[in-house]
Here is the input.
Amino acid sequence: MMIGLAIGAAVIVYLIFVYNSLVKARQVKEEAWSGIDVQLKRRADLIPNLIETVKGYAAHEKTTLEEIVNLRNRAQAVPGGDVAGRAAAEGLLSQALGKVFALAEAYPDLKANQNFSELQGSLEGIESEVQMARRYYNGAARDLNVKVESFPSNLIAGPFGFNKATYFEIANEADRAVPVVTF
Here is the structure.
């Protein structure tokens, strides 16, 4: 009888341990997503200043600038939990930002503008931060996914609603490239 109670208590303690480790993994994943979201917001906040700076030099490039504003707004409108949708929208935005920096080559005065150079440098730094946040998030998502799929924690994960996390990936290879920033 005592042995049965000890085994039952050990199983309950183990189940609690596994459940708590799943909760911790999910919270780390959520915190990691928050890090990506913060960096993407910083980038989105820089875009209007960049657009205004470029407008003065490249007025006839209106379609490119409008495209960036539209892509920025679309990326900001993606629901917070839609990792794949946000990754796709941000990839398109990164590609469009690359076009703005290509414009700088055609407009030497723009390229020499201190405000443009500072915005370009800030954006380059933020892109680096986004990459680090993305790697951290994907690592947290991997850890959660391993726990959700591994035996015996999968026996607890399913009934308690723990699901696999979506990786923050960019589907189009061309979108994976960080905008080229040249001075």
